[in-house]
Amino acid sequence: MTSPDQGTPMRPMWCDDFDMDLLKVIDGVEELLGDVAGLTLWTHGQPYKGTINSPAMWNDDLGLVCFFGFANPAKPDFYATSAPAIKCTALEAFRDLWSHGSVMLVEGAPVWNSQDLWPDFEKIMWSTRGWGGEWSPSRNQVRLAQLRVRQSLRGAATALRTLAIARGLPLNEEAAGDA
Question: Which of 32, 43, 131, 150 falls between 20 and 30 A from 112, CA-CA?
Answer without folding.
Answer: 131
